[in-house]
Design brief:
five-stranded antiparallel sheet, 15 strands, 6 helices, globular, D-amino Acid Aminotransferase, Chain A, domain 1, eight-stranded antiparallel sheet
Amino acid sequence: MARRKKVYEGKAKILYEGPEPGTLIQYFKDDSAPTPATPAPAAVEGKGVLNNRLSEFFMTGLNAIGVPTHFIRRLNMREQLVRMAEIIPLEVVVRNFAAGELSSRLGIPEGTPLPRPIVEYYYKDERLGTPMVSEEHIFAFNWASQQDLDDIVALALRVNDFLSGVMMGVGIRLADFRIEVGRIWDGDYMRLIVADEISPDSCRLWDLRGAAESMEREGVTRDPGPLPDVYTELARRLGVLPSNVTHPTKPTLIN
């Protein structure tokens, strides 16, 4: 078998040259992204398989409602065929509820509903800790244009509507999530698409079923909490769980 050329390797995925021009093969690793509690990545058995299936589910759904993504098709348990895109060096975060960094930065209690979805931008540079940036930074350093940002916000909010509805349908609250956006060209025409992945690694998910069960059992009000074994539980509720894949880990949350 011919050795594939590696294009890029990150914490959770590897990109290889695709079989056709303008395509890549995206391989999902079992490594867990580092967190403040666990700064070194750790292998989590089965995580890559589940994230491959979950990202396929979400990307396919977005494509079906007219939100363009890089996803073409799943190739096997760990790999997808995707479109090659020029990634804009921003992580785009959409927040529906106060949590993590937003709570600590602004002093808003965790779990507080926000008056509207808030879109934030973070510069993609792990050496700098992926700092939060403003539109002025983005324009000054030519990472994206005003039209790009208008299109990015429109994409992000459509993704938010879709994900929020899907999650609510299976008893999960989407507190916040992050996406990456890339540029592709059709001849002389450029358009923006959702790239990278959508999985529990990039979402903060709260379990509404568990909260409701606790309220009924204990007769007290209880805020939603994180899903136990989030990868397996989310895949099970969405009906995309491969057989014989379980593990006891938690997701990487947006700070």
